């Protein structure tokens, strides 16, 4: 009888290759790899809106070159810098987001094992929230220096009046920016500036994202099926991202402000989180805590939808590489 399914692989591949396939097909490892793919796809799709959000966030009274609508802001970015302006910082962002997203999805699946009453059992919403929050904190600590550099790269070429043409003539790249920050702004601590408001925002954001996605995904799954179709997965991703971003957005504004707190020409010198909140509210009111939320919400739908869909597609493919899979 002819070999079928994964049994047919045994004569074709050696034991080392089969062992590697088994490792890749482990749920946590598959989630780790699929998370990296999901991060790169989602960030590239929404790179122009991501950069515009940052430019909105770092503005204050007297520095309002990007006090524009989303459409006019994108048009200004195109006029000033062309296509490179849309993608400015995206290379660094992808270098950051691949390990960030991989660690986030992988650690979420890892932490879930400690909360399951039995292998593969469903979790309560609270336990999903806790696992997601822990996964978010884990991923932040591993990749934060790349996040702060991405922020610097995103804004350093923007046409803010306080930054002269001479200052923008020679712009440092990712690694040069890391070195400059390390040498001139306080060593390792400089690379983790703003991490406290980041963690404060990321933990509930990631927790809400995972919890909401799994709840909505379950709701959108037709009765009797295990998985919704691609369109419903996209909808679940868009909804989960919008809910999580709206609830935690002020922390994101604080994170960006602290990341450029010592950057030349920007004028921010916050002493603490409470000092930053007090100054932002005094200058701009409650709206100051939500600067950039419009382009952020516009990017959330395609970003999280493409992220979750690419994650599930990649993970499902990797899981088929194991010997337990029915067929390839």
UniProtKB/TrEMBL annotation:
Pfam families: Mito_carr
Record carries keyword Membrane: yes
Solcar repeat copies, ranges: 26-114, 123-219, 228-317
GO biological process terms held by the UniProt record: transmembrane transport
Highest taxon of the lineage: Eukaryota
Bilayer topology term: Multi-pass membrane protein
GO cellular component: mitochondrial inner membrane
Compartment annotation: Mitochondrion inner membrane
Keywords: Calcium, Membrane, Metal-binding, Mitochondrion, Mitochondrion inner membrane, Repeat, Transmembrane, Transmembrane helix, Transport
GO molecular function, one term: metal ion binding
InterPro entries named in the record: MCP (IPR002067), MCP_dom_sf (IPR023395), MCP_transmembrane (IPR018108)
Similarity comment: family membership: Belongs to the mitochondrial carrier (TC 2.A.29) family.
Described function: Mitochondrial transporter that mediates uptake of thiamine pyrophosphate (ThPP) into mitochondria.
The protein, known as: Mitochondrial thiamine pyrophosphate carrier 1
Organism from which the protein derives: Venustampulla echinocandica
